Amino acid sequence: MATSRLRTPPATAPSGPEDPSELWWFHLVVGALWLVFALLVFQFDSRTVGAVSLLLGATCAGAALLELLAVPTSHGSARAGRVALAFGFGVISILAFVHPANSFDALATIFAFYLLFRGLFDVVVALVGRGRPLWWLTLTLGFVQILLAFWAAGDFGHKAFLLVVWVGASALAHGVLQIVRAFELRP
Fold this sequence. Notes:
The radius of gyration is 20 Å and the shape is globular. Helices cover 71% and strands 0% of the residues. The mean pLDDT is 78. The chain has one domain (47-185). The relative contact order is 0.17. By secondary structure, it is mainly α. The longest helix is centred in the C-terminal third of the chain and has 27 residues, at 159-185.
């Protein structure tokens, strides 16, 4: 009597990509969108408080979404940090949308904290990932954002104009960083 072996069906593959390099194009698209957003920011009239508030809210909402999208690929304390950062960006975004008539001083303070938190996070990520190619770019952008945070918090006049420049520069920095990451991950 011949015995037949029962075959077990192969395990199904997880629904998400196993290799982060499979999503290199996503970083490229997100980076391009950040660059388009930065270009649009520089086209706005810097005298409109409402427009600047909406730009700040959109920038923080985009940053929160980007952090939430990165949560599944993070592990340990980096995952908790990304969730906390996304929550903070979300709160800032909501405040900017709910109170668009606030003064530029309030918006500059909110954006200063955004730049400070984002800059500190980028510096920590860069130092932890020193073995990665071009880690120094993340470190440099983090320090630039920290310096801009203190500039935004100061009273150097022309806050309306400077706030538009800060939002645009932050979006530009995020776009460049995402495009560089896309080419780092590209197989």
